[in-house]
Amino acid sequence: MGAQKKSASTVAARTSDDPEELARVPLQAVLLADSFTTKFRPITLERPKVLLPLANVPMIEYALAWLESVGVEEVFVFCCAHAKQVTNYLQSSPWFSQPNFSVATIESHNSVSAGDALRLIYERNVIHGDFILISGDTLSNMSLTRALQEHRERKKKDSNAVMTMVIKRSKLSPVTQQSRLGTDELFMAIDPDTKQLLFYEENTHHLKGTLSLDKTLLIDNPSITLHNDMQDCFIDICSPEVLSLFTDNFDYQHLRRHFVKGLLVDDIMGYKIYTHEIHSSYAARVDNYRSYDTISKDIIQRWTYPLVPDVLLLGSSATKLEREGIYRASEIVQSRSAQIGPLTVIGNNTRIGNNTTIANSVIGKGCSIGSNVLIEGSYIWDNVTVEDGCQLRHSIVCDRVVMKSGSVLSPGVVLSFKVVVGQNVTVPTYSKVSLLLQPTKQDSDEELEYADNNSDVEASSIAGTHNNLNGELTSDLSEMQGSATEELGSGGVGYIWSICEGASEEEWRHSIAPVPAEKLVELSQTMDDDLDFSNQDGNAPASSGELKPGGVSDSDDEDGDANNDSAYFEKEVVFQYSIAYKDVFPIFLNNTANFSLQVEATFLRAVHENVKVDHVILEVNSLKLSYNMEFAACAGAIFYSMLKLALGTPYNSSAELYNAVINVINTWQRLLKSYLSGKDEEIEIILKFEEMCSESAKELSPLFTKILCLLYDKDMISEDAILDWESEKKYAEESDRVFVKQAEKFLQWLREASEEED
Amino acid sequence: MPDVHSLVNEFILKLKKRKVEGSQATARLAAVLLRSVISQQRIGYTNQAGALIDAVKAVGEQLVAANPVEIAVGNIVRRVLHIIRDEDLSLTTAAMAGLNLSAVSDDDDDDTSPDDHPVLSAAAVAAAARSTLRPPSLQSLLEDMPDSAAVPHTSSSGGDSEGKSKSADKNSRSRKLKHDVIEAVNELIQDIDTCHEQIAEQAVEHIHHNEVILTLGSSRTVLQFLCAAREKKRSFRVFVAEGAPRYQGHLLAKELVARGLQTTLITDSAIFAMISRVNMVIVGAHAVMANGGVIAPVGLNMVALAAQRHAVPFVVLAGSHKLCPLYPHNPEVLLNELRSPSELLDFGEFSDCMDFGSGLGSPLLHVVNPAFDYVPPKLVSLFITDTGGHNPSYMYRLIADYYSADDLVLQRKAAPST
Predict the structure, then answer these.
(1) In terms of DSSP H, where are the helices of A351-469?
(2) Least confident piece of the model among A232-236, A669-673, B241-245, B345-349
(3) For residue range A422-441, what is the model confidence (pLDDT) as tens digits?
(4) What is the mean pLDDT of residues B383-410?
(5) Alpha-carbon distance A418 to A434, whole Å?
(6) Considering only CB atoms, which chain A residues are within 8 Å of B185?
(7) For A19-28, A207-216, B185-194, which range has the lowest pLDDT when averaged over its residues?
(8) pTM of this prediction?
(9) Long-range contacts of residues A617-620, Cβ cutoff 8 Å, at least 24 apart
(10) Does the domain made of B201-336+371-409 have the CATH classification 3.40.50.10470?
(11) Cβ atoms B76, B38 nearer than 8 A
């Protein structure tokens, strides 16, 4: 009785929370129990990805537990590949009998992408309000209240705000240019005020470090932040319109590549996507083997708290956390001499033999591990037998695999279900071993991981020419093999998949093994080469920065309309790319001549358009940075352009020319002075001047002393600099001393003056 | 009993997901839950106490397993078991005392009962009770009791001869037992609710004028204790150590200031520097073990050591629901909870340190965030519970009052069931 009353009162309390919408739809979620990729092959040929264990608990458990904890009341699990397995699993799990949390499965056999899945869900007409869209391999402990509230408020104000994407900061590895989850670099442009997503580009590394932003993006938004250190958590809060959008655009397949980018490009409908950044909570998606490894370690290191092994999840057995992050299930038989290292999970009913060393690994339920075994950084699932003397490093070993004594798994190996590795066999790095033959026609990335078990086995029996091992295999795969190439040694069972062409290059990126040291060295070398080639100043790119109104800095004005562009910038708001924008805009040339040309162009434009001196200084500074020049070079270049300007004005006599020079110097002395920070720069100017007088602008040569005098009077050049210049020239060739001679009188006077002072 | 069952499951889920935390909240909820378990438990004629004990134990096991760190839950389960045993004992003694005077009056009660069972012959019931329910039966328990000095009464010594008349009043006893137990559990719940006030009442005896009190983190008991002293016009200063990484000390400081107390907030690392100016350390606890050791928020062991170095009294406030009858074994690990490292540092900022793709593939950065410390009994000067102040060495006596020795191990048969 009391119970009934209590539950009734809690229900009442819940509904009275938001009185304005009493007839509120329950919060719904769509969970895609299929990733529609082939990254986890060959394992996913036999078991759907969402049922693969992550720290001994199937991934879908994490996703469902999170959905339940954030207050979702209805979940639609969309199953495609191995739909039966997912459904059966859910039916046997307690999820179907939860109060206030209903789980329904939607099965489909002909969906090949997330787009198809969402179209099907739209047809079913089960989603009535805002819903959360995640894939079954996503793991999070974030609280949704803030994000949901923000989403709803935005939705109220602007019905075009259809989606809120959850993002989290995570730095890229500077060497491999990929995130710690093994995903490619992701570039996002976000409006810092409204958090609107303006630009989304993944797979940027094939763009070779260049990224082109649409100009309108800069015009329409007062400020933009660019990020390459954000990780997409693949948790989306969607309005129901999203489903209809998928239906309208029947060619949308991929959630990000098509849908998100499609919406961002399409400005007719004006749909907007917003982001929600999480800071202290965790969210990540198992995308590939590397993220499997990383996320497993995050779980063990408790970033996902309370979704950690020792806090009981539904369906897992009691596990205790001991010192150094060792999680031990209740019933383990472990030899006294076995060494269990830090950050290890060991499942129920597992036996571990003498002198076995285990570190940084996850071991499933019911495994038997022999003596003198070394297991490091590996993931061993349930009921695996590892005989004496085996060595496993950074590999995944699926259910019921048998490793005969002395066998060795090199880093990056994946052994699929029921494979047998023969005695003393070493499985080479990155090999994937399965009982099923590799499908002959390579599915593209777009294809789903859907594979009918039976048909695959048939295919293997037909195409079973290579890679087969001795015959007495498990049940169905038996007699049809002919030759025995014995890749897995005597008694071994399974095919080593050949690495598909093109992917071998990238194998190390997504493998579970750490990136080999040679590769890192190689990569950092190529990176250095790149830097040398384009002669950029070696700094790692700033990971995110803000584009703010500031000074002009258009560096790529090689072509004619560049001037127009920059002029436009000045009229509107002037943009200063305070991020290391060389990563964004390519700059190829570096030589001094080009630099002076650029400075001259900038200066001339400034003269003609009356740009403020400060802005010119900013511009020249940015040029200086991008060409990696010294102040002296700037000073030289500016002085050169100033004289060029003076020469450009019409004159009849040298006196008139002198007047023009005085004029220019008077107008622009502040600009020049800001680059004259020391004697070196001043000497540089004199040398430059001398060079001009002797080569390009002979007209000036008679005026050399006069102008030098003028500069001295204007306090631009100190007497020290002039005297130093003279002494530098003392032993030069006669032809080089022409101007020293010309200025002899002036120099004499200077010397006397300084002596007098003494 | 689907109702109780679903209630139990709901509470277990909450415990598992760490949605209910804190010893007072969990203790109260556990007590309320056990009350409804008891009230819905169907009781037969015989061995009612045994049935109740089994029911409570079965639920209790699951509750304890759901979150072993919330020690208060286990304490409450044991308290309730003790209550059942106690009430049963007192009923038996009362019945026997009454029996010696006049056995008839009890039989009248029996007839008026609305129970649909026909009144069996007393002899048959007695026989059934003897034969079927031998191992956990109360009779056997009582027969064993006289050996232990703890039980004062000796009236059950002649059990066999009085068997016949005793069984006759079983039926009335059953409802009486349940009623009494529920009454007692209600009292327990009330105790839990009022423990803060009861502890706070003693504040004036401990806090004197112009003293400086140090505390760490935030505890409601401590807050009320300090406020109670303040209300009695004591003027004193409070040093609050912020209690990294959750910084609950900040909240406490805010509360204290709101109530007009002179408050100084210091970092945890400044404790040793400040302790020489402190007259008394007053802290809350997560649990008090049978040996007088304390499971307390992380950082308190450091405070206790500093206090010992400067001979500052280290006073622990704990409601009686925090008294745990177990002895700590490896408490730093087994009675601890490691929380998420994100409380310590920002994931995004440190994500490059946790890139397992490069290097050896094994993490180099470990972030450990334990929730609790174990303070050994020798560092504690005084415990203040709702019944008064006690020495650490006295705790086991206090605990013997609240728990019966049979209940110390709850999960005797738990191992195969999981």
Answers:
(1) 453-463
(2) A669-673
(3) 888 888 888 888 888 877 65
(4) 89
(5) 8
(6) none
(7) A19-28
(8) 0.71
(9) A617/A671, A617/A674, A618/A550, A618/A551, A618/A552, A618/A553, A618/A576, A619/A551, A619/A552, A619/A553, A620/A671, A620/A675
(10) yes
(11) no
Distance from CA of B414 to the nearest CA of A (A): 11
| ω into B245 cis (within 30 of 0) | yes
Instruction: Name the residue among B334, B341, B357 with its Cβ closest to that of A176.
Output: B357
State the pLDDT at residue A258.
Answer: 85
Whole-number pLDDT of residue A455: 38
Nearest CA to A133 out of A282, A31, A51 is that of A31
Report how far residue A414's alpha carbon sits from residue A430's, in angstroms, rounded to the nearest whole number: 7
Taking only residues 167 to 226 of chain A, the set having a beta carbon closer than 8 angstroms to any beta carbon of chain B reads 168-173, 175-176, 178, 180, 182
Q: Cα–Cα distances in Å, from B343 out to A140, A306, B6, B368?
A: 16, 13, 33, 10
Burial B312-333 (b: 16+ CB within 10 A, else e): bebbbbbbbbbbbbbebeebee
Distance (Å) from the C-alpha of residue B311 to the closest C-alpha of chain A?
A: 33
| Chain B residues in contact with chain A using a Cβ-Cβ cutoff of 8 Å | 3-4, 6-7, 10, 16-19, 36, 39-40, 65-67, 333-334, 338-343, 346-349, 351-352, 354-363, 366-367, 369, 415, 418
* Residue A1 pLDDT: 39
Q: Got the DSSP string for A272-332?
A: EEEEEEESSS-EEE--SHHHHHHHHHHHHTTTTTTSSTTSPPTTPPPEEEEGGGEEEES-E
| Cα–Cα dist A254/A113, whole Å | 6
Q: Does A305 touch chain B (CB under 8 A)?
A: yes
Chain A partners of B41 at a C-beta cutoff of 8 Å?
A: none
CATH 3.40.50.10470-classified regions of chain B: 201-336+371-409
Structure tokens at A748: 């004499």
| CB crowding B389-405: b at 16 or more within 10 Å, else e | ebebeebeebbeebbbe
pLDDT at B271 over 50: yes
Does residue A444 register a pLDDT over 70?
A: no
Closest alpha carbon to A394 in B357, B355, B353? B357
pLDDT (average), residues A128-149: 90
Range ranked top by mean pLDDT from A67-81, A468-482, B247-261? B247-261
Q: Tell me if A638 sits within 8 A of A629, measured CB to CB.
A: no
Phi, psi of B74 (to 5 degrees): -60, -40
Average pLDDT, chain A: 76
Residue B340 and residue A69: Cβ atoms within 8 Å? no
- Which pLDDT score, from 0 to 100, does residue B142 have? 52
Asked whether the beta carbons of A185 and A179 are under 8 A apart, the reply is yes
Q: Which residues of B touch A169 (CB under 8 A)?
A: 346-349, 351
> Tokens 């009162």 correspond to what residue?
A9
Q: What is the pLDDT of residues A383-401, one digit of tens each?
A: 999 999 999 999 999 999 9
Instruction: Please write down the HEC assignment for all residues of A131-181.
Output: EEEEECCEEECCCCHHHHHHHHHHHHHCCCEEEEEEEEECCECCCCCEECC
The residues in A 82-101 lying below 8 A from B, measured between CB atoms, are: 99
Which token pair is B53? Answer: 């004990």
Mean pLDDT of chain B: 80
3-state class of A578 per DSSP?
Answer: coil
Supply the DSSP symbol for B16. H
Secondary structure string (H, E, C) spanning A489-517? CCCCECEEECCCCCCHHHHHHHCCCCCCH
A320 touches chain B (CB under 8 A): yes
Half-sphere exposure of A26 (CA within 13 A, CB side): 18
pLDDT of residue B211: 94
ipTM of the complex: 0.78
Is-contact B45 B117, C-beta < 8 A?
yes
